[in-house]
Amino acid sequence: MIINELSTVRKSNRYEVLKYIFSHQITSRIDISRSLNISKMTISSIVQDLLDEKILIEVFSESTSIKAGRPIRSITLNDQYFTILGIDIGVNHINLIAYSLTGDIFYTQNIKPTDIVNSIYVIDTIITMVQECMELALKDKIVIGLGVGLGGIVDSSGMVINSPDLQWFNVNLKELLDQRFDFQIEVDNCTRLMLNSEIHKNPLFTTAPDKNILFVNIGYGIGSAIFLNKEIYSGISELGHTYAGGNIKCFCGSQGCLETLASGNALEQLGSDLVGYQISGSSLDNLAREGDVEAQKIYTHLGEHLGISIANVINIIGIDTVILGGGISNSYDLFHSSLYKKCHQNVINVLKPSLQIELSVVKNDSVLYGCFLKILFDFFQK
Questions:
Q1: What's 304's DSSP letter?
Q2: Which runs of E-coded beta strand occur in the chain?
Q3: 230-255 burial: b if 16+ Cβ within 10 Å, else e
Q4: Exposure string over 82-118, b if 16+ CB within 10 A, otherwise e
Q5: pLDDT tens-digit map of 183-207
């Protein structure tokens, strides 16, 4: 019993040490000991184990922890020996990034899929992309794991129960990939992964860790994730498939979903109807910025629909802060006013003073970075 307890404590200390080194990049044993309030002897022992396992390497640097000017053996994560892969599956893309343990990118590959609704095609494409990556860039590296993110309902086993945009139902993506690779596979909802990235990049989660936060991903569709009681809520959170009005049929099979009125796909449809031919969301954004009144109205209405729907979530859960991410959030200045106005109007009075809506601080590859973090911290706990 005592041995098991000691093993658990050591495992916990090891995890905290690795997290500290990841956040500080280069540090010393003394700094770790002081910051984590763990004895120097314990830190030295843990660090030596990690050096032996090639998870850490030693570097020489200057430090204020000892006499000025004297070089010491600092430690950092080994960015040459291990790698973590992330894959982001969307309607119009399958993107792969290979990360070092420090989060540096050393390989990327982007593919425009030709048959995204065919899960077998997508899985075969992923396998090919990973194999090409391993052959071209990872011959001398050990792959720790692969994280995969996509929109829809994904359970804790990696089963894609329903992805309306991809038209996937009950696809056991993790199991199918496990059959092809001998490293860890994790599959999760893309917006939860974006929130995971936000937690590690946005100072808000450090300065105000008790806040309940709603993350809204406005991309081709609309996703949502919730930070509740200091952790990411693991259950279903499908803001895009709540009723927002009208009778437009949604990919999920229902009518009047928020996604049919305020997503990137909806914007493209509305913009195309406006000009009489197919245009992209970026083209509609340009029209609005050039002063086209009707294009500006489309963004105003988008903000109104989002504002009402977000207010409903705030009132139910007691959300303190809303963070907007995804490609359409790049046009936030075009719908900020209408979104905030409608949200403020519909939030209950007791919550109005604290209403806060802001943009994500992670602008690029947030799903992929979330995949990296998910695998990395699982690795740290082993």
A1: H
A2: 26-27, 56-61, 72-77, 82-90, 93-99, 105-111, 142-150, 153-154, 159-163, 168-172, 184-189, 213-218, 222-228, 231-232, 321-325, 356-359
A3: eebbeeebbbbbbebeeeeebbbeee
A4: bbbbbbbbbbeebbbbbbbbebeeebebeeebeebee
A5: 999 999 999 999 999 999 999 998 8
- Confidence (pLDDT) at 2: 46
Angle 57-31-48 (CA atoms, 0-180°, nearest 5)? 35
- 259-275 pLDDT, tens digit per residue, is 999 999 999 999 999 99
β-sheet bridge partners, residue 98: 85, 107
CA 2 to mean position of chain CA atoms = 39
* CATH architecture type of domain 203-359: 2-Layer Sandwich (3.30)
pLDDT, tens digit (0-9, with 9 covering 90-100), for 35-53: 999 999 999 999 999 999 9
The first and second tokens of residue 380, run together, are 């740290």
Residue ranges, comma separated, of all CATH 3.30.420.40 domains in the chain are: 82-195+366-380, 203-359
Taking the C-alpha atoms of residue 99 and residue 103, their distance in angstroms, rounded to an integer, is: 5
- Cα(306)–Cα(130) distance, rounded to whole angstroms? 37
Please provide the average confidence, as pLDDT, over all residues in the chain.
94
Residue with tokens 């959300």: 319
Identity at 37, one-letter amino acid code: N
Dihedral sign computed on CA atoms, order 39, 44, 49, 54: positive
CATH H-level superfamily of 82-195+366-380: ATPase, nucleotide binding domain (3.30.420.40)
Residue 281 CA to residue 27 CA, distance in Å, equals: 45
User: Which CATH architecture best describes the domain 2-77?
Assistant: Orthogonal Bundle (1.10)
What SS3 class is residue 308?
A: helix
Sign of CA dihedral 113, 119, 124, 127: positive
Lookup result for tokens 């860790």: 209
